[in-house]
Automatic annotation (TrEMBL):
It comes from Kroppenstedtia eburnea. This is Helix-turn-helix domain-containing protein. It comes from the Bacteria. CDD domains: HTH_XRE. Pfam families: HTH_31 (PF13560). GO terms for molecular function: DNA binding. Residues 13-66 form the HTH cro/C1-type domain. Coiled coil: none annotated.
Amino acid sequence: MKTTDIHELGEVIRQERKRQGLRLEDLADENISPATISNIERGASHVRYEKAQYLLDKLGLKLEDIPHLLLQERDRLLELQRQARKIESMIVVGNVEIARELLDHIEVDDKHPLAATFHFHRGQLHITQKNWRRAESALHHAIHLSNVVKQTSNVEAAAFQASALSTMSRMI
């Protein structure tokens, strides 16, 4: 299984766990720890197949359901990527209210692959309002998340640049 598939499978498992209203601790037992469940959800490649299968069974997911669920997850990710591009475009052309409205309707947790992107956009919006502290907080959070999630985008560099510009603007 490719690394992207492992991450997508982990996201599918996380979404199903949350849909069922379960915490990591609720699924943990003598055969699987909360840490192992977390590793599976994060797509850690060192987790044994048997543990992932055990977790799927506990969630009531069948192996034959996984391809369909992966396609659904890819569709959700593509839609979120489209939303991120739309938000970025609205910020660039100065339609910050539309960007803010779009961003307010996005719900992703900090473990989501696009979390850093959305925090970066929040930082950009705070800069447009000259709300420097919130901008710094959102941008630093974006930097942190881009390191945690190991994004292959330029969010970290863009957030560093925006943070530096925000700091310079505050000093002027």
